[in-house]
Amino acid sequence: MNSIEYIKKAKNGEIDIVENTKKTLEEIKKIDKEYNYFININENYSLNQAEKISKSNKKGKLYGLPISIKDCVCVKDLESKAGSKILEGYKPVYDATVIQKIKDEGGIIIGKTQQDVFGFGSFNTNVGKGYKIPKNPFDKERTTGGSSGGGSGITKKIEMPHIAVTESTGGSIAAPASYCGVIGLCPTYGRVSRYGLMTYSNSMDKIGVTSKDIEEIALMTSVISGYDRKDSTSKKIEIPDYTKKKYDKLKLVLVKESINEGVEEGVSKNLINLIDKIKYDYVSMPLNFKYSIQVYYLCTMSEVSTNLSMLCGMRYGMHEKLEGNFNEYFSKVRSNNFVKEAKRRIIIGTFARMSGFRDAYYLKALKVRTKIIEEYKKIFKKYDLIITPSMPNIAPKFSDINKMTPLENYMTDIMTAGPNLAGFPHISIPSGFSKDMPTGLLAVANHFQEHKLIDFARSLKK
Ligand code: GLN
Predict the structure, then answer these.
(1) Which residues pair with 93 in a beta bridge?
(2) How far is the CA of 23 from the centre of ligand 1 (A)?
(3) Residue environment code for 328-360, b if the CB has 16+ CB neighbours within 10 A, otherwise e
(4) What stretch of H or E contains 158?
(5) How many CB atoms lie within 10 A of CB 173?
(6) C-alpha–C-alpha distance, residues 431 and 438, integer Å
């Protein structure tokens, strides 16, 4: 039963939502023991919510549906730490706007899912100090992908109706969706409020949806979208009803560079097979494929280096014994509680913004960013959707990830960095299997054209 059927039955009274919540909690606890998808499972909280909703007269669009939330989205009174150790113990005093919207529609929050700390990673192996790494639902020796690894893993593994709320800065919805064989939709920057989302990179963070079924994605995207006066970057623009089909014929274009060398054969084969029945053209995106990784990492790390400066053991989360002067105390807290990848990003980002280097790195990156956006915009004048694989490979084994250099690691974002730099909505759709592991197709649309992505996924389902 998918979530749409479940909600219908729950509304009709054919299913008891409290009982359903209990069963869902049992299932996720069992899965979690083996796969580590949750950072917190919030039993009492979700049961209380279910009781309350079942007693109320209002039957919202998500009535009684269990929903998992990536840890970086603030939920009032639930520990929310973006997967990090340094924020341990932090319980927000307010709900993120998306959480408020979900609650208003009767959704039940069952827990916070695992992620790379603050979103720093593509394999969910950069977890907070001492936390467990989630494992791929198809092969426990492989990664779920990151950084929304927990949300994608549980989506694949769970049998009870459920939808995951996930987040992407540079591919964190698409990457794990592709590696776990589920659908992930990242909306346009500004479509969904970021209020209450713990910042990784302000100019790129987006909250989105991961699920098994495109109708579930359509429903949740309709619920969480919309202007929010608490987020100055959210946009006042009409929200279409994604649950209804709108587009029939969409013009597709496949990016040449995306199926070239460096991409696993099974990945490009599956992609071509999937779209072969549909008409499509080819295009080249030289700028994107040459520079998007460099530009993405320079921009995000620069933003990270200022954003994380507030985490110093004074205001939020971790505190240590107050000793020494400011520098000594802050250094101790940050040295002990940031993982290596967070430190690397703070250092590189600080360097890229330093006077003397800023022009050569950060400001240069911003200029190239604009050029890359222009490259996309030109293509969107003629086409509706730009197609590439979601990831160049199948989910790698942990033993191989350990051997990768940081640069090799960053390079796996080659398909997803571009659309995220430009704030374009994109969707990862399962395209088949290679060596018994799922592969994904990435479709990118122009700003605020999420509906095209959803209708495209619908057309592939047939
Ligand atoms: N892999 C990318 C990074 O490490 C994207 C992560 C994300 O979207 N949060 O920055």
Answers:
(1) none
(2) 33
(3) ebbebbbeebbbebbebbbebbbbbbeeeeeee
(4) none
(5) 34
(6) 7
- Which residue is listed with tokens 């494992």? 135
As a whole number of angstroms, the distance between CA 97 and CA 24 comes to: 25
- 366 burial (CB, 10 Å; 0-12 / 13-18 / 19+) is middle
Please choose from 124, 152, 300, 404 the residue to mutate so as to test ligand 1's pocket, defined by most ligand atoms within 8 A of CB: 300
**The model's pTM:** 0.97
27 occurs within a structural domain: yes
The answer to whether the CB of 120 is under 6 A from ligand 1 is yes
Asked whether residue 306 is assigned to any structural domain, the reply reads: no
Mean pLDDT of the 130-155 span: 97
List the CATH number of the domain containing 144.
3.90.1300.10
* Predicted local distance difference test score (pLDDT) of residue 453: 98
309 is catalytic: no
Q: What angle do CA 37, 424, 438 make, to 5 degrees?
A: 40
Kindly state whether residue 410 falls inside one of the protein's structural domains.
yes
176 touches ligand 1 (CB under 6 Å): no
Q: Show the domain range for 176.
A: 1-274+386-462
Give the pLDDT of residue 315: 85
Mean pLDDT of the 23-45 span = 98
For residue 147, indicate whether it is catalytic.
yes
From 169, 296, 428, give the residue whose CB has the most ligand 1 atoms within 8 Å, as the site to mutate: 169
Non-local (6+) Cβ contacts of 182 within 8 A are 152, 155, 156, 210, 211, 212, 430
How many domains would you assign to the chain?
A: 1
Does the residue 47 lie in any domain?
A: yes
Q: Would you call 247 exposed, middle or buried from its count of C-beta atoms within 10 A (0-12, 13-18, 19+)? A: middle
Tell me the per-residue pLDDT of 182-241, one tens digit each, with 9 for 90 and over. Answer: 999 999 999 999 999 999 999 999 999 999 999 999 999 999 999 999 999 999 999 999
* Ligand 1 neighbour 200 (Cβ under 6 A): yes
**pLDDT tens readout for residues 388-426:** 999 999 999 999 999 999 999 999 999 999 999 999 999
User: Is the CB of residue 211 below 6 angstroms from any atom belonging to ligand 1?
Assistant: no
Structure tokens at 299: 């921009």
